[in-house]
Amino acid sequence: MQSRNHSQVAARDTLPRRILGRTGLEVSVLGMGGVGAMGKYGPVTRESFALTMTRAAELGMNFLDTSPDYGDSEAVFGYYLQDHRDDWIVCTKVGGCLGRENLTRQQVLEQLPQSLERLRVDYADVVLIHSIHQYGKGAAAIERLLAPGGAVEGLKELQEEGKVRFIGVSGHVPELLPALATDLFDVALTYNSFNLLMQYAHKELFPLAQKHNVGIVVAGAFYQGLLTPDRESVLQRKDQWFERDDPGYYRTQELLDRLERLRDLVEGDDQALRSLALRFAFSHPAISLVISGMTCCEEVEENVAATLLGPLSTDELQQVADVLGTTLSW
Q1: What angle do CA 248, 249, 251 make, to 5 degrees?
Q2: Domains of the chain, earliest start first
Q3: For residue 12, what pLDDT is reported?
Q4: I want to staple 189 with a disulfide (CB 3.0 to 4.6 A). Which of 65, 81, 87, 170 is the partner?
């Protein structure tokens, strides 16, 4: 697989779109992730990030994902959205990232209006329950959220009020499976479960999403930075980048061995590796879009240029599968 420079985007280029499951929303296959807006990958200001969003919109990006748990992310997006609401599909979340025992109807009804105020919008297109694995293992998580007075009840009320158009869940695959089986959710966000280093989401989650026509959003195409030149910094601060039950935390050496084989495939070209990672991440037909935490116009342009090359071909997928010693067929 030859390494090439794909950083240039022609003025006429624009991102293709896919349908976000049964929502019917046409979303760009590459979306803006909220951890970039919070400054996790480098410092941002509201003014500098507004320029980044402007460039992203020029290239056809129209989906953003954020959360009240992502620092000032909602407010940073809001600074831009106050003048550009109609150009973007806005997705935010309720509930924290980790550590909650439950999420109640009342908490949802209190949290979302605060998010809308920070985002400077009247409604959210999509609202996800954040990291549902914190509420229990497997089906226990969704049973708790569906109980009377639980989070889903609050989201349904907000839908009726016009504050939310579509609802969904984010989290780990073992908890997303029973959630999607309820047929109550329009969208699911899975992270660190489908990328060049880990692919377990495609075995059960993606077919189930297709069966129920649930829109799939994939995060973690660069696997928290392991697939970028910043990997050494990520490894030095694993506690900040990975949850303890993530393979990136406890199977690090195995993943690094895979990474070296992938780098050989692209002849050591880190930009080509990033391009390969993005293209792989939306190669499965169940995936509506991939979100990435971009912080500047240069990152937007590089990621869009890679995305415009399209999904990996059958031959390219086979090359990746051969390098990883796995099967990638769907």
Answers
A1: 70
A2: 17-226+271-312 (3.20.20.100)
A3: 59
A4: 170
What is the sign, positive or negative, of the torsion defined by CA atoms of 157, 163, 168, 172?
negative
CA distances from 132 to 57, 142, 316 (A): 31, 7, 34
pLDDT tens digits for range 309-324: 999 999 999 999 999 9
Q: Among the listed ranges 154-158, 164-168, 174-178, 197-201, which one has the minimum average pLDDT value? A: 197-201
Coil/strand/helix, residue 208: helix
**Beta strand ranges found along the chain (DSSP E):** 17-19, 26-28, 30-33, 63-65, 89-94, 124-129, 164-171, 187-191, 215-219, 287-292
Q: Is 21 left (phi over 0), alpha (psi -120 to 50) or beta?
A: left
Residue labelled with tokens 């990958």: 41
Give the distance from CA 290 to its chain's centroid. Answer: 6
Cα four-point dihedral sign 180, 184, 186, 189: negative
Enumerate residues 6+ apart whose C-beta is below 8 A from 231: 225, 259
What is the C-alpha to C-alpha distance for residues 225 and 327, in angstroms, rounded to an integer? 24
R_g of the chain computed on alpha carbons: 19
Paired sense of beta strands 17-19 and 26-28, if any:
antiparallel
Query: Which residue in the block uniquely carries the two structure tokens 């046409």?
Result: 26
CB 125 within 8 A of CB 81: no
Strand pairing partners for 218?
190, 290
Record the tokens describing residue 101, joined without a space. 């025992």
- Report residue 188 as tokens: 């699911």
Pairing of strands 124-129, 164-171: parallel
- The closest of 243, 279, 277 to 259, measured between CA atoms, is 277
Q: How many CA atoms lie within 13 A of 15 on its CB side?
A: 31
Give the phi and the psi of residue 89 in degrees, each rounded to 5: -90, 115
Please tell me the distance from the alpha carbon of residue 245 to that of residue 86, in angstroms, as a whole number. 39
Q: d(Cα 296, Cα 293) in Å, to the nearest integer?
A: 10
pLDDT band at 4 (very low <50, low <70, confident <90, very high): very low
Would you state the structure tokens that stand for residue 97, as one six-digit string?
A: 């990232």
